[in-house]
Every structure is written in C-alpha cells, then in structure tokens.
Batch of 2 targets.
Target 1
Amino acid sequence: VPKILIIDDERDVRDSVAKVLERSGYEVRVADGGTEGIEAYQKHGADVVITDIIMPETNGVDVIAALRKESPSVRIIAISGGGNFAPIGYVPMAITTNAYLAAAKKVGADAILTKPFERKDLLAAIDGLVRS
Amino acid sequence: MARIADSLAGRLGLVALAILVLLLPVLYVGLDRIVARSQQQMFVTDIRTYARLLADEFELGSATDSEERTRALLENVLLSREGVFAELEFDGRTVRAELDRTTGAESFPGEDFAYGAGGDQAYYLSTPIVHDKRSGVLRIGFDERPVEATIRETRRRVLFSLGAFFVVSLLMAVYFGRRLAQPLVELQRASRQVASGELAATLETGSDISELRELGRDLEFMRTELVSVSGRLREQMREREIADRERRELEDRLAERRRLATVGTLAGGIAHEFNNILVPIQLYTELAIDDLGAGHPVRADLERVQDAARRAKRIVNDIFAFTRGKDHEEFGSVNAADVAAEVLRLYEHMVPGGIHVVQVIEPGCPPVVGDAGMINQVIHNLCANAVQAMVDVTGELKVSVMPASDTHSSQAGLAPGTCLDICVSDSGHGMDSEVRKRIFEPFFTTRTVGRGTGLGLFVVHGMVESMGGAVVVESAPGAGTSFHVLLQIASSTAVADFSGTQAEG
C-alpha cells in the first residue's frame, strides 16, 4: 500500500485529504507545517508527499528542497490556495503564489494541484505519480 | 450745477463768465467816457468852426451893411443848426435873431469855455469881428441836448455790443471747452470699454491738440502692453489649469490604482483562505455523499452544498484572474484583432435578438504585448457587460480595434502613438460619474441580484493593468458606454509605422 505524507498548516485541509485517501486505501500520515513534515518524512518515509506551499516558518518550497535532498525518488505534489495576495506591479512585496509554485516545480515538485480540488482530481494526481 | 462745474466745458464757461463779469463793466465805463468826450469835443469844435465861418461871412461880406441881411444870417443859425441864440453887436448896434424858440436865453449869458458849463443845456460863445475897420462881436448859442441824445444812443449801442460780446464769448468758451473735452470723453469711453473686457478698443485720439494726441498715443501704448500682458497671463493661467487638471487626473488614477491594489490584496488574501476552506467542504461533502445510499433525502442537500462550493470556486478564480498577474517578460506578442474577431464570432450567436453586433477592425493592426487568454477574457467580460447594459432594450454592441488616439493615450497616462485601442461600446443606459468611479471595484454591480457577480470589470482592470495597459471609460447616462482597452504595441514599432505594418500585413 503506497504511503502518503500530507503536510499542511490547515488542519481541516490535511484531515479531509487524509480521510479521502485513507478511504481510497492509502496509508496516510499527516504533519502540521513544514518542519514537522520534514521530520515525519525522515522518521517514517513516504511514497508520495502532498505539501502545501504557503506555510508559516518553513514554507513548501523549502520542504520540497529538503525532501529531494533526502530522496530523489519520492513523489511530491505541491498544493496551494493559488493566486497572488496583491496584483503584480502595485505592491512590490506582494506574495506571488505563482512564483512559489514555479519555485516548487524547480526544486523538485512532480505535480501542482490548486485548491480547492475535488476528490477525483486528487486521486488522479496521486494515481498518476504512484503508477509512474 | 455741480456736474456742470465738474466738466471741462462747464469750467471754461464759468471762467469766461467770471472774466466777462469783471471786465465788461470796466470796458463799458471806459467806452462810455471816450464816446461822451469825443462827442462833446466834436460838438464844441464844430460850433467854434461854424462861429468862425459865420464871423468871416460878416467880416468879408456886406451883411453888416444891412440890418435885414444881418438878421437873416443870424436866423440861419437858429434854423440850420441846433442854434438857440444868435446876436451881432456891431458898430453900436445890436441885432438878434428872433424865432419862436422854447429854449435858449433871453440875453447872452456869457461865453462857455467848456461843454456843459453853465448848466443851461446850451453852449454859448462869442467871436469878435472886424469889418471896414469897425469892430463888433458875434454871439451865438447852441443846444447841447442833441449831443446828449447822441451820447445816450451810442451808449446804448455800446451796451448792446458788449452784451452780444458777452453772449458770444460765453458760447465760444463753452464750445471750445466741449471741443477740448471731446477727445478726453472719447478716451474715457474707450478706457471703460477696455476695463469691461473689450480689449480691442483703441485709445488713440484724432485730436488736433498735440498734448491730447500725445496722451492718447501713450495710453494706447499702455493698452497694447496691458493687452499683451493680459494675454500672456491668460495663457499661463490656461496652461496652469491644464497642468492642474492633468495632475488631478494623474492623482486620481494613482489613487484609483492604490485603492484597487488594496482591494485586490485584500481580495487575494481572502480568496486564498477561502480556497483552503473550500477543500474540506468539497472533500467532506463528497465523502458524506458516498456514505449515504442512493435516494437518501440528505444526499440532494449535500449535492447542493457541492454546487455551492463549485460556484464559490468560480468566484475565487475570478478574483485570482485579477490578482494572478505575470511578470512583464512572460507576456508575448498577441494579435489582438484576431482575438477580438474570435470573441465576436462567439457573441454573434449569443446576444439577444434586439442587439446588433458591429465589428470594426482596422486591417494590419500591429500585435500588442499581452496574453491571448487574458485579452480574450477581457473582451469577453466587456462584451458580457455591454450585453447586460442593453437588457430589455434594442441596441448595438460594437467592438473596434485600431491605433489609440492621443487623447485616450494621454487620459490613460500612456505615451501617445504606442498603444492599440480595443474598444467595446454599447448603446445602453450609460453610467453617471459616481457609478463610473466604482465599476472596477470587486463585487460592485448595478444589476439585479443573480445577474452577475460584480467581478467582470474588476478582472478586466486587473488583467489589462498586469499587461501594462490601461482602461479608459467614456459614459454618460442615456448615452451608452465605451471601454477603451489600451495595450502597448509589441516591439518598438509604434503607430507611426502602422502604415508599413499594414502594407506587410
């Protein structure tokens, strides 16, 4: 049974995703935030890691970079609430989720999933990665 | 009276009057004296000459030989002149002319040595005569009253002449005063015209008085200088007004951008959080539906929750469409005319029957900097908005693509000649200025509930701005609305090279 690690600072998100995946037969572990997620992977390992990108303290890009260092073969799905927090060109310090997602892809994310997603989208993404 | 005394003509008249009033009595008295004296002098000289001639007549002739002839000559004195007395004492005899006279003395009262002497209104003189070595005295007297009458008449004439002189002098003073004042009156009228804004009124006078002519020339010079300064000032004020207006428009645009940026930031943050919330809503709902058997009454409710979550997702996506943005380098070169034509092909089949779709695309439009998907979305949203503005009415939806006018470029704060204008206009009910100010705000809508989310124009604004363009809105109540989407022409070829592009295209 493929082992899946879910890293998200939003409890409702990680719990709902976990429940969907458990019901689909996966072995699921959850972690609250990036630091805890890296520790969980180091401790328990996983075939697929689903990690949020915008998180306090350790963000998703750093998590993916750390996981890639641990294992080049682990499959990683980056998920994000999407969008920008401010229109480009107006506020120089605006948080650009697109930029984070691009960075996530660069450091080793295998797939990007934009919240909110439906069950079929989630399962299709995991299924594709597990099979590959 | 005070008004007359204030005027130049009135003052000259008064001065002339004063001079005449002082001068004329002196003149009159002087003339009267001269006239009286000359008349009296003439009378005395005349009488004395006459007496001498008569004496010569007695001395040289033979009148003294006969008393009758003597008397006849003496009576001639009384008859031919204004004589009142004639007597000849000769050779011991005295002959006196005797005529019925009411004046004159009974006997010779003695010689007068001056006119008016004796107080008897007659002038008496005696002249010695010698004839044939015999001597005698001729005594004659003449009435002074005709002379007095002549003096009185002359005095009357002098008085009349002086009166006429007085009147004529006064009239001439007034006339010349008015003539003198005329150029000043003209100057006054012209200066009032200048003061009231008729700057073309000339201040030069055609006076033949050099001082007034010079004054008019100087004032005219002053007027032209003032007109010139006034013109310059007006021009400066106009330029300043334009600069102020442009500054205000720029400030308004900046304020609008900041406001929308703030709203966008807020909306983006809320949307991000919203997406996080939607994940468990969607997933748990799906799990719950699975748990319920087919036909369970709660299942339909949960499916409605699922639909609502999907609708919420669409709204969030719209907000992201505004905030998603791209780096400028990420944009490519897009043929906006093709995109517009593509959207219109779709709309021609979608619009209600009463709406006529018009497409005006200039051939050979240069490509713009942007994203084809975004431009498609922008035109689509604007067309949807236009159709909504013409709900329940017939009208025209017009989409045109052409080089942007300098006016619109300037209004958008973009360099003239560097933009393409994608204009979507409708003949709908238009907007007032208050609505126009708020149309780009998220969730702002004038439509009835359920007809729109109020995000369409919000998205348009965000996308156009992120592509480095700008939107100019022209609208008035009842006059329809035009949205000019100005996007920068790709590469350095601007509108100046547009004809070349056309030729190639």
Note: Chain B touches chain A through 39 residues (CB under 8 Å).
Target 2
Amino acid sequence: MPKGFFLGEFEVLVLAALQRLGDDAYAVTIKRDIESRAKRPASLGAIHAALARLGDKGFVAFRISDPLPVQGGRSRKFSRITPAGLRALRGSTDALARMIEGLELGVER
Amino acid sequence: MTTPSRPASPPPLAQLVVRLASPPNEREFVLGDFHEAFDERVAIAGAGAARAWYWRETFRSVAPLAKRRLRRIRHPDSSRNAVHHIDHLIADVRHALRLSRRSPLASLAIVATMALGIASTTAVFSATNAVLLRPLPFPNSERAVELNSVYRGGTPNRFLAYPDLADFRRDVRDFSAITVFSQNDVTLQHGVDPQSVGALSVDPAYTRVFGLRAAIGRLIAPADTVLGAPKVAVLSYGFWMREFGGDRALVGGTIRLDNEPVQVVGILSEDAYLFPRASIAVLTPLVIRPNSIMNNRGATWANAVATLAPGMSFAQAGRDLSASATRISEAFPQSNKFLTARLGALRESVVGSVHAMLELLAAAVAAVLLMAAINVANLILGRAQSRSREFAVRSALGGSPSRVRRQAESEA
C-alpha cells in the first residue's frame, strides 16, 4: 500500500467531517463539527492547511461559491471528499481498528 | 434619538498576522472564515470575547498556515497551483488580446520590432550553431587533426613533403590513420563543352578518416594507387546527379578526364563530407611516382589529415609529431633544416577564416535584439502609464500587487 495512503489523525477527523457535512463543508462548519464531536480544538488555520494538503493528495475537491448576497459578501470555499479520499479514510480507520482490536487499554471511557 | 452602534470588527493586527501567514491563493477564504466565525462569537459572547477569541485562533493558526505557505513557495508547481496559474494566464492573455485590438498600431509596432530582433538573432544563431558549435559532419570528427609544416619562425603551411609524411606514418603512433591527398582539378569531356571540375587525388586512408561510404560501387582501394594501375574515379553524389542524371549504368563505364579514359568505380553517398571543399566532384587515386618531384623532401605539395587514436590527447600527439620532425630535420638537414611540423584541429582549419566574423556578427545581432527589447519595454511602459486608472480599479477590486504584476507580465 503506498505510503501516502495513510492519513494523520487530524486528516482523519477532517475527512470524517467532510463525509458527514456533505455539501455544506467549509472550514467554519468543519471546525464546528470536529470541536463538537471529537471534543478537541481545531483552529481554522490548521483546517485550511489540512484541506490544502488533502487536496494535493487528491482526497478532497473544492468548489468556490458565489459571493453571499449581502454587501461585501464573500465567497466560501466548499470542500468535498473524493472517492480516493473515502478509500483513504476507510483504509486508515480500518488499520486503526485492526491495531486496537482485542487490546485492553485499561482506560475508562 | 439613538445612533446605531458600529458593528464589531476583528482586531486589525491579528487580521494582518493571518493575512501574512496565509498562502496568497487561500488568503481570501481564510480571512473570510475567520470573519464569519468572529461574527458568530460576537452574537453569542459579545465583541470583547470575540476579539479575544480572534487572537487565540490567530495564535493557533499561524504555524500551520505559515508551514503551508512555505511549502507552496518551495513547491510552486504542485498541480493545483499550476492549474490556478494557467487559468490566470489564459484570462490575462485574453485581456491582452482585447487590449491589442484597441490600439492596433502600438501592438503592430511591438510585434514588428520583436519579430525583427528575434528573426535576425535566430538566423545568425542558426549559422553560428551550424558552423561554430556543431561538430563537422563525419564520424569521429572531433578527433580529426590537420598536419601542417612550419618553417622556423614562420606561419603554418598546409602542405607537406610526401617523404616526411611517410616518416610520420612510421614514427608517430598517436594516429589511427593518416590520409595524404592533393587537390588537382581536372577537365571533364562530357556533353558539348569541356569543363573544369574539382578533383582530389586521395590515398585509401581518406575514406577511413572522413568515414566515406559508397552509394553505388566501391571507394578508392589500395590496388588503385599502385603505379601503372588502371585509372579509376569515384564521383560525388551531387556531381553524378547533376552531370549524369543519376545514371546507375555509369558505374563500371568510363568518362574522359584530362583527355584520358577513366573508369568510374563508385558513387559517394549523398551525405559524404569532402575536405577541403564541398565542391569536390571527383576522387582519383593518389599515385606516387618514386623518382618524381612528388617523392622529394624539398617539395611540399601534399595535404594530410589524421585521426587521433582513441585515448590519445591532441597535445601528446603534437609533441610526438614535433619530435619526429626534429629527427627528420637532423637526418636531412639539406631539405629540412628549418622545417618542423605542427598539428591543428581540423575544425579550426575549416571555420578559422569565418570564426571571428561570425562571433562579431552574433554580438552585433544580440545588440540589435537588446535594442529591440528596450524599445518594446519603452512602448509597454508608456502604455502602462496611460492605464494607471485601470490598475487602480483592479487593486481596489481586490487584485493583489502580484496578481496585477502577473497580468502586466502576461501582456508583455
């Protein structure tokens, strides 16, 4: 399996958020999703950097929206997980699941 | 009456930090997302808390953004970035074409000036490349050297005495082949009027040194150079086509050279390189008559070109040749007392006379191109000056300085 196939922990979180958010995924909603579900802080800068990295690998595709219909309205950069990204996400989570299967972690959830 | 309070805005310094840390093509979206999240915080917790959040978020974001920006600088040709730039380039080129239609005279002047500069540079470079830079067009031409004789204190002479050459062949082991030849134009009787044609008397080594091949028949063989052997000739491809219409039956037949019948035994291939001049039409065998002036050490009439043996240096071969010439001058002081020999690269011998002229011409044309470029730069700068308003509008609409600069470069 190629080295670039495996993802870092934060990249897994970002891809999972993209899969859940569907067409409404951009940095602000991704941040909200990660912070509310994973209970860990995710800065906007880190999310943008991770998205760009995943885009270089072909795991994420981008779409620029029309400017918002208000004065000075800005465009949003929406992200969408690609089939390759989905495979990478599944590969990484499966590998993690296989590694911890049957382990006694000794930590209360 | 109450005045509406101004909407809260993010701390300008923090915004500047985010702007500087972000990759240029992401900047607009990163700042927009920061602003949107800031507005949400203002609505939930108030302006002060939102500003504090903005600063915290900025501190947490600077490192990943800056890392990404550095990566973009180090790897600017990542496919997505390249596509981005290509899109911009296409848009800029379209814009430039629209502009050129608006001022056709200025555009025509620019195109004509550049076309003139580039065309003259290309023409002269093509000639320089063919003459000065490319190797001579035959195998191992970089190892081909010309043997010259030099009278002490004098300039090199292209001709040598045949007995000296025979000694060099025997003594100097630095060459894989030495060919001896002599130019002697002949009169061809063919058609209505006799005509003078360029001819070369060559020994069999000539074909090895210049890598000649026969298109039809054979080349000059050792048996042809024996005294009393039947007279034979090999014709150049161009001469055969021009004078005899490419008649294949000519090979094996006879032509009249200097009023004597000579059998044509072969036709050279079309790409044959003929030294010392391309206009040579006929090769005949070089026959040395033992008791003639040809065999006299005092008679310098023969040209000689050699191929350096593999691994042999030019300098070493030159030293060995000089040493051999010194031995000969000691053995034959009457004829060779003031005579020595010298090696010259064949290439220098071919292009020597035009070398300096071509270099001068190339420099002159480069200067013409430079002047053309300066003139065009002046024209473009003049136009840019008159378009300062357009650039101001572009900047006001969000065009970054680098984007506006790229547009100007694309137009150029």
Note: DSSP finds four helices and two strands in chain A.
